[in-house]
Structures are given as C-alpha cells and as structure tokens.
Hints:
Blueprint: E1 21-23, E2 27-30, E3 38-45, E4 63-71, E5 74-81, H1 85-93, E6 122-126, E7 129-133, E8 140-142, E9 149-152, E10 169-170, E11 177-182, E12 191-197, E13 203-210, E14 221-222, E15 226-231, E16 234-235, H2 238-242, E17 249-250, E18 257-262, E19 273-276, E20 282-283, E21 288-292, E22 295-303, E23 326-334, E24 344-358, E25 369-374, E26 394-399, E27 404-408, E28 414-416, E29 420-423, E30 433-441, E31 446-453, E32 463-466, E33 477-481
Bound molecules: 4-hydroxy-3-methoxybenzaldehyde and fe (iii) ion.
Amino acid sequence: xxxxxxxxxxxxxxxxxxxxxxxxxxxxxxxxxxxxxxxxxxxxxxxxxxxxxxxxxxxxxxxxxxxxxxxxxxxxxxxxxxxxxxxxxxxxxxxxxxxxxxxxxxxxxxxxxxxxxxxxxxxxxxxxxxxxxxxxxxxxxxxxxxxxxxxxxxxxxxxxxxxxxxxxxxxxxxxxxxxxxxxxxxxxxxxxxxxxxxxxxxxxxxxxxxxxxxxxxxxxxxxxxxxxxxxxxxxxxxxxxxxxxxxxxxxxxxxxxxxxxxxxxxxxxxxxxxxxxxxxxxxxxxxxxxxxxxxxxxxxxxxxxxxxxxxxxxxxxxxxxxxxxxxxxxxxxxxxxxxxxxxxxxxxxxxxxxxxxxxxxxxxxxxxxxxxxxxxxxxxxxxxxxxxxxxxxxxxxxxxxxxxxxxxxxxxxxxxxxxxxxxxxxxxxxxxxxxxxxxxxxxxxxxxxxxxxxxxxxxxxxxxxxxxxxxxxxxxxxxxxxxxxxxxx
Length: 489
Ligand code: V55
Ligand code: FE
C-alpha cells in the first residue's frame, strides 16, 4: 500500500526511482578513456516511502547515492540509499514519519528531536570516506566503495553535532576541506561557523560568526586567504513553520550581501567584512572565487528575481520565470576599502546558466575553465515536464580568458544533470581532461553517463555508459581517484 501523490512532483519526469542495486560492466557506446581510474559519485532525492503531505517537495526526498566506478575503459554502477537516522527510523516503521521540508512541527511525535537530514544534496570523497550531505544536518559518512552507511560524524568528538553545508570545498594547496554550518546552534538561530577539516579528517579550527538574517545558506567560495558567502533573502521564520508555509520565501525588499572572512585559525567574526550588493538579487551556486591581495573575486550565476518557484515571494507576488533565470557573474570587493560597496560587477555570459563547475585543482585560485548547465529556451522539449527538467537542457564550457562558450544540446527528449570535470592526469594543465554528466531521456526513460572531451563539449559525448533505467533528477556529485578510494594499483 504505497500511495504516492499523483502530483507533478511524483509523476512523469519526477516519478520516484527508489532502486538500489549493482550493474557490473555497464553497456558502453564509444570508448571510455582507458587512463581514467576512479569513481563519479552523485546523489538525488528519492523518498523511501510515500510522503506524509501530497505537496511534499523535491528537496525533501531521501538521498539516493549513485556510484560510477570507472577503470580499464569499463564502468560499474552501484546505487544505494544514504541510510540517515531519518531513513533508519522510517525503514523500521515502514512508513514516513517526518513531515514537510524542514518543518519539524509536522513530524510524527515519535521522532521529535531527531536529525531530519536526508543526505540528498552532495556526495564527496574526503579522508577515505564518502561525505553525504544535507545542509540542515551533520555530515553522514559512507564507505566510498561499498556505499554502506557509517552514520553521522562529529569529527572525533571535536565538532559539536551541527548542520554541515552540502557545498564544502577542498583547498588544493592544503588538502583541507573547508566547510561551514548555519543555524549552528539550532533551528532559527543566526549562528554560523566556518571550519576546516584536515586531509585525515580532523577538525583543525572553527570560527563562529552571526548571519544578517535567517536565510538559506546553500553554497560559498574559498580563496587562498578568505572564505566568502553570498547571503540572499531566501528567508525563513518560526512563524512560517507555524503557518505551514513553505520553509523558505523570498523577500525582495531586503539587501543581498557578501560576507568575507579571513580563513585562518585565530581569526574572529570581527575580522570579517560585509559588503552590500547594489540591488537585491538571487544568488546561485558558486563557480569559484580567488583573491589578488585584498581584492576578492567571486563568480556565480545571479538572477534579478527569485529562482525557486517552490519558495515563493513573501508578498505573494507570482513567480517570474524570466527574472528567475541566472547568468554567470563576477563580483569583486576590496577588503581594504572603507565602504560596504562592491568594487565591480561583470556579467560573464549571455547564456542562462546554473550548476557551475571547475577543474577542482584550481578551487580558490585564479582559473580559466568553467562548465555549467544552460537553460536554452529556443530548444524544443518533448518530455512530460517538471521543475528543473525540460528547461535545463544543454551543457556548456566557458573559457573565462575570452568569454567564449561551447555548448551541446542532447536533443528534444532529454535533460542533463550537473557536469563534473575529471583531469586527464594529476599533473595535466588546467581544464585538460574529461567532463561526465548524466543525460536522461524522459521519453524512453533511460539515462546515460556521457563522457566529453572537457574543452570540446560541442562535439558531443566520446562515450556513453547506457543504463537500463532512468536515474531521477539529482543535485551534485564529484570525482575521486582510485588513490582517494584507497584502491590505487
Ligand atoms: C538546495 C537544495 C536542497 C536544500 C536546500 O539547491 C537548498 C539548493 C536538495 O536540497 O535542502
Ligand atoms: Fe547545491
């Protein structure tokens, strides 16, 4: 007796998958580069059981982790649920116990006080573990090879249990994982903290600070010297929860901010600086950031208006789909300036884009190559539609030294998921390598993991690992090498 809602969010393109399993030696068209030895892990929301509320939203699904283990030109596929505390409690009960997205007031009383995390947003290998993350809960550890869940970590007892961002960055110079927590002292607290985790998984230092307002803090950037947060008024309040409103709503009357904090042990909130964007705007995922002395550069897609229809305008104003399109933009602020004003704002492309990625070996450094997904409204779409799909329909490479872009469109039946860059070798120049991305056919209902020459995405995939199912629309994922997996030859 599993009655999923017959709604847009659970039918057609967004029909739940809920499939755990293994496929050894996936069927391949073309040639997967023989030098690749590692794994692409990615995650999508996929409710274990039918939701309590029919209007349950996509971001509330349980994390389903996929692994594509690539070696010797072959691809093995594995897919497992992230067994969060929530997943285990519901698995035992045989039904959903947790209610609406981030609204604990809607939960079954038997789960009061439990972490509500779904680990559905990002997966990344660090210190020999797969970190599975959701921004409202601590970091869940999984075995990166078997996908067995080990549970939430407190980093050897050094980091008090608190929410952990789904968008940590690894500093390529130190190997440290740079991460943060918001609502760090509990739901609806303005407390935040920045921290770094060593290559062996130990907490190195933590810097607490306070936010401007209670809002979604989804992503951030690092530079060699600073951690940088875009702070936008996608706001929440206890009152919203009591009224059973969507957890977040967008407030176009509040400023959008940038907070810059020195990234060193011993720095305090007083060393950080707030800069005010010239106008309210919606800030998306961070492509990269870097600093040149006191000048801090921060690259991310920006939209004039709210991009999340499911977190509507607080005034009740209707969603503006054109205003909600975002464009990769470079913000610059100067830590030596005497004002809270930005130094400059430069739009870097005319293509509407999101899900920006880089060659992660250049995280926090000046860089040249970026990849992202494009909303190409001129292309036809033949699938059943749904949020994020049918509209995110192309892959792009951008050369930031020239602004030149190359794009690839997978055809009218397909959507495409976030790309991930893989260096050709550890010492290859920036951007030399491959990009992988899942291409989902919403008519035939099959997905393919497509491999591209990273700087020639316009030529289409050089290889496709063809799955006999369609993987549900997901969020984020990352590549790890055989050495990072503890499987080096
Ligand atoms: C985001 C995604 C989330 C979430 C909060 O894309 C923000 C942004 C997949 O869950 O809970
Ligand atoms: Fe994200």
